[in-house]
Amino acid sequence: MIRTFRQHILRKTRLLDGLWDFITDPGNVGQTEAWYNNYPSGSRKLVVPSCWNNELGLFDYIGAAWYRTYFDITQESSIRLVFEGILHHADIYVDGQHVGSHFGGYTQFSVVLPHLTEGRHELIVRADSTLDWQTLPTDVADWYSYGGIIRSVELQELPDVYIESLKMDYQLTNDQADISLQVQLQSLSSEDSEVVVNASTEGLAFPAAIVSLSAGQSAQVTLRGSLDNVRKWDVGRPELYLFTVQAGEDDYIDRTGFRTVEVSDGQILLNGKKLYLQGVNRHEEHPEWGFAFPPKLMLKDLAILQDLGCNIVRGSHYPQSQFWIDLLDEHGMLLWSEIPMWGCFMSTETLASPLFAERGVRMLDEMITRDYHHPSIIFWGAHNEIDTRTQEALELTKKFVGKIRSMDQSRLVTYATMHPEEDTVLSYFDVIGINKYYGWYQGSVDGFRDMLQNYYRNAEAQGAGGKPLIMSEFGAAGIFGDTGWEPRLFSEDYQADVVQQALNIFREDSRIVGTLIWHFADIRVDVRSDRPYFRDRARSFNNKGLLNEYRKPKLAYRLVKEIYRRDQ
Ligand code: ADA
């Protein structure tokens, strides 16, 4: 996949990115009709990865589309096709056979095709961007309804016994790390096999293991070892260790950093030291690329975050691309990662839907499995702005938080509440995030003071009084270039005033351990003529960015930079 380092040296991999055949299927007539009948007149080429809505004539298109490409293999081999992100429902066909499907636009999935014959093969993807009240996000989300294959597609050639997955865990005692590597192996062979599994990292070779696999079966082995004098990963000190696992003819390379994260006495401690979080919410979105955000621009976004004085970014509101998270690891920048829960604040019907809950749990599983090794991630976000005053929200919280904790005890679990004064789920979390917009949707900026007092009372009453608190969203819209002498609504001046005053209030309150401004840069919003939502989004953008959509700084950016950099 698109990572900043190579994950395989022995296993042959290649990207299938590039120009694919493409056709929309608004009537859902199926590939034969939509595709072959219209080809070549009704079809076009589209770059993978990209969003179709960034192409002429497709701006508004929500629905199904067909993609086609071909790949060659020079001798019979087993292959794995890895899809890093397809919005939102995906069906995969190889040589006319349906070989897999997936729901969830921001998490990766793959299909394994054993013993494919030598020669040319046809790969067809049906992508459907339709959302409804039971999808994550729902069909009402404050970002653009893009569709398409938004992240890379990779082809891997697998040997008969291959490494299905690697899970690295460690226990830090001072500067000694006790490490375990859980290696999952899979056989595609019709015969029993035996493989030697080796692993190493800088300064440590793990004792090898010999694993026997029955034909076509899987097996698991855990390698253990200790590393002394480990260099700890920290904010601005990105010490990383590369691990190479080899099993027979296959290999798997991954990376981690050693660090501890915990909550103590109302504070967040990273490597035992108190942490004050300064950050922003960031969508991985750009008006020209949509969610197919190019790696080159990620480097620029990261440089801007560093310039602003941030030590954390919230990946609002979905798992972001692996390349981005690799960059955060490499630059010592923290990440709050979450699944796309948006649009559940108006009714509890969605929260009560078993299908919705099942999809959410699966996404949490896919997010945590994919990103488990990144030291930059310190929070898993369970949900954003659901009605946490209700029984339905409580039940869903139990499911989601239970799922997260069952998979990962090394990170903190958080969420963003919009009902801090009446919230009933506080006790399930390690850290509480509050989203409030005083100075924009509600009253004046001073309203934050009363809200915070009410929140503290509510938290005390629920036995959650000592939990660290992050202001996870606040801000105001400011249209880039609209400046003047008076702070009018929607001007850069007004936005800068709100953000500056809010930050000053939060910094006086010792129970607040961090601020995440809404948001990094302006994003496109889906303001359709037939929909009642987001009518206040001038230009059809959410204009609360400290930068505009092309990453040009507004006045608020300069003021926040002064504040964020003051204490560094
Ligand atoms: C919410 C939501 C954000 C955004 C913001 C706003 O807090 O979580 O995604 O929609 O409001 O701009 O109103």
From TrEMBL:
Domain Glycoside hydrolase family 2 catalytic residue range list: 261-565
Keyword Hydrolase applies: yes
InterPro entries, per the entry: Beta-gal/glucu_dom_sf, Galactose-bd-like_sf, GH, Glyco_hydro_2, Glyco_hydro_2_cat, Glyco_hydro_2_N, Ig-like_fold, Ig-like_GH2
Keywords for the protein's UniProt record, in alphabetical order: Glycosidase, Hydrolase
Glycosyl hydrolases family 2 sugar binding domain span: 15-159
Pfam families: Glyco_hydro_2, Glyco_hydro_2_C, Glyco_hydro_2_N
EC number: 3.2.1.31
Single GO term (MF): hydrolase activity
Superkingdom of the source species: Bacteria
Keyword Hydrolase appears in the UniProt entry: yes
Residues annotated as domain Glycoside hydrolase family 2 immunoglobulin-like beta-sandwich: 161-259
Protein family membership: Belongs to the glycosyl hydrolase 2 family.
Protein name as annotated: Beta-glucuronidase
Origin species: Paenibacillus vulneris
